[in-house]
Fold this sequence. Notes:
Layout: E1 13-18, H1 20-23, E2 24-25, E3 29-30, H2 32-47, E4 51-56, H3 59-66, H4 76-99, E5 105-110, H5 112-116, H6 118-133, E6 137-142, H7 156-167, E7 171-176, E8 181-182, E9 194-195, E10 197-198, H8 203-207, H9 221-233, E11 237-242, H10 248-253, E12 258-261, H11 267-278, E13 283-287, H12 289-296, E14 306-311, E15 318-322, E16 328-333, H13 338-344, H14 352-356, E17 370-372, H15 376-389
Parallel strand pairs: 1-4, 1-7, 4-6, 5-6, 7-11, 10-12, 13-15
Antiparallel strand pairs: 2-3, 8-9, 11-12, 13-14, 15-16, 16-17
Amino acid sequence: MTVDRKLLSTYRRIVIKIGSALLVDRSTGLKKAWLDAICDDIAALRSKGVEVLVVSSGAIALGRTVLSMPKGALKLEESQAAAAVGQIALARHWSESLSRHDIVAGQILLTLGDTEERRRYLNARATLQQLSKIGAIPIINENDTVATTEIRYGDNDRLAARVATMAGADLLVLLSDIDGLYTAPPHIDPAAHFLETIHEITPDIEAMAGGAASELSRGGMRTKIDAGKIATGAGCAMIIASGKMVNPLSAIENGARHSWFAPSSMPVTARKTWIAGQLQPAGAIHVDAGAEIALSAGKSLLPAGVRSVTGQFSRGDTIAVIGGEGREIARGLAGYDAEDARKIAGRKSAEIAEILGYAGRTAMIHRDDLVMTEPAHKRQGGRLKEDAAHA
C-alpha cells in the first residue's frame, strides 16, 4: 500500500456507486438489511465531515421483481416500465433508511445529455452543489424510464465517474460483486493476480477487463476501467471493492482488500487544456484592468469587472475573456446568456436580481470554469515593462 492511499474519512467528497446485485435479490427483492448497513456507513462518514453522493443502481431490478417479470433480457419498453415502478420503490427505501440518521435524501435522475451537454451539465452540477450545501444526500440514477439505447450510459459505473467529476469529488468508490482488479477475470482464470494499486490506466490495464458477471448488472470490469479513466483524469482517486459484506464502507476503512486507482498528477492542467483548446468560443467578454488582476489571482469573473459583451451565446457555452489592447487572456464557460450578461455588465453582484428579475449566479464566469490562456509573464511582466517605460 502506497503513502498516497488514505482512509475514506479523510476525503472531502466521495461518490459511492452501488451495483444492482448488491441491493436487489432476484427472488426476494430489496436487501433491506444491506441497505440499512451501508446507510450506517454513510452516516458515519458524514459525522466526520465527509460529503457523500450515491449513484444507486437497482431500479429496473427492483421493478421487475415487484412486477414479477420473468428472468432473462427485457425489451426496451419492459425495462422502462420496470424502471418506472422500481424508481419509486428505490427512492422510498433510500429515504427511509437514511432518515434513521436524520439525513434527508434527494433523488436525481440523469440522462446522457445531462452530463454531456454543457448547459444541462451546469444545471445538474448546481443541483448537486445545493443538495450538499443543505446537508441532503443525492441519490442518483440514470433515468431509465425515458433513456433509449442510443441516448443512455447503459451502466452506472461511467455515470458515477461523470457525477464524480461534475461534483468535484476526490474519491469514487465502485461497490460491486468483485473485490478489485485482477490480471484476468478470476472466475475464469484461477491463476489471476490481484492488483492492489494502479498508478496509471495503461493499455495493459485496460486489456485485463472482463465482461458483466451477473444477470442484474449491465456493467463489468470494462466499464469500471472506463470509469477509472474518467475519474482519475479529473483528479479523483477511485476504489473498486466488494460490496457483498454488510457495512462495506466500514470494511474498506478497516483494511478490507480493494483496488485503488491513483488520480492524475495534473488534473487541472488536463481540464484547462480541454476548455482552452477543444471548444471554440461562442462570444467574448471584455474586462477592465482590475478584473484582469483578479483573474490572474485565481478568482472568478464578476459582472463589475466587465466592460462589454460581444457575440451570441448561451449559459454553459465557451467564451473568450478579452483584456487590454484586445488581447485574449482567458476562456471559460459562461454563467449567463449573452443577453443577460449585457444587462449586468459593469454592475455589482448585489444588483443582479433587481436587473434580471431573478437571483442569478454571482459570477459571470466561475473560477472553476475558467482558464488563463495568456502566459503569466505576458499578463504581468509585459505590463511592468510598459509601466517602467512611462515612469
